[in-house]
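A reminder from the course coordinator: this example appears on the midterm review sheet, so study it carefully.

Given structure:
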């Protein structure tokens, strides 16, 4: 088991050696840089990321062997780090769920989570994220975004199948968007929905283009370009099918907004 206290002892020893002149400055700096990195053969797991970046490292599942994924998960559990793994195939998930009964797999979003490990996460203020989909075929990307935003600690609401082909559907659900700290809009085809949403809300809108559409959609490129050219000033865009990235950024915005409210005493 990896012990954070042993790392603190190492740092103290390095400081002592440096002050005694037994360790040069380059050697001392190189030693310090290795703190928080755990060598798992082909993976260098960054367990210091929560301190630096606010959230732990996320596991990208595609291309990783089951053995590698198991080593990563066990190490994170030992460190009491909440786990989020994306792009996990059903075949890999079935094996991992046997080895880690506390894990939860979202077959639509292809995410695997192990929550409730970090005590600090429960002390953080919770912000609000609303995820909007244009159509039901955008759901896999939206589910990846939802799982990610929930993993960051945000309170997440879903508004599904409200694309521009029926704009009255969006209007009927505006009350679920108006108090959000961030809105994630997942859309393929012509990718117009983020611009429409951006005209109704006072928070950042994160457009996630999907590869849904006919031939001229070019695998999501048409939606991506449409969102990049949005005339709504509060719309920003992530990569095609990047539900994780949209959910992560929304969660970060929501957490910082919740912290600001807590510090100011706001009850919104």
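Designed residues:
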């Amino acid at each position: 088991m990896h012990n954070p206290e042993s790392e603190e002892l190492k740092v103290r020893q390095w400081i002592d050696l440096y002050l005694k002149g037994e360790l040069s400055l380059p050697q001392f700096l190189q030693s310090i840089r290795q703190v928080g990195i755990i060598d798992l053969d082909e993976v260098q797991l960054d367990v210091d990321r929560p301190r630096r970046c606010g959230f732990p490292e996320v596991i990208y599942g595609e291309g990783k062997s089951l053995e590698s994924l198991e080593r990563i998960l066990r190490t994170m559990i030992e460190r009491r780090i909440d786990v989020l793994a994306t792009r996990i195939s059903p075949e890999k998930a079935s094996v991992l769920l046997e080895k880690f009964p506390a894990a939860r797999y979202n077959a639509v979003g292809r995410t695997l989570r192990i929550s409730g490990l970090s005590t600090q996460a429960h002390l953080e203020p919770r912000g609000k994220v609303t995820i909007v989909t244009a159509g039901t075929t955008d759901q896999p990307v939206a589910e990846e975004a939802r799982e990610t935003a929930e993993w960051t600690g945000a309170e997440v609401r879903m508004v599904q199948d409200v694309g521009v082909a029926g704009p009255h559907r969006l209007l009927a659900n505006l009350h679920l968007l108006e108090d959000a700290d961030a809105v994630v809009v997942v859309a393929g085809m012509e990718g117009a929905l983020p611009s429409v949403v951006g005209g109704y809300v006072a928070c950042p809108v994160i457009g996630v283009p999907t590869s849904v559409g006919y031939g001229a959609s070019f695998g999501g490129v048409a939606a991506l370009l449409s969102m990049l050219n949005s005339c709504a000033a509060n719309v920003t865009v992530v990569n095609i099918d990047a539900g994780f990235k949209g959910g992560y950024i929304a969660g970060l915005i929501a957490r910082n907004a919740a912290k600001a409210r807590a510090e100011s005493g706001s009850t919104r």
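The first helix runs from residue 4 to 19. The two ends are 42 Å apart (CA to CA).
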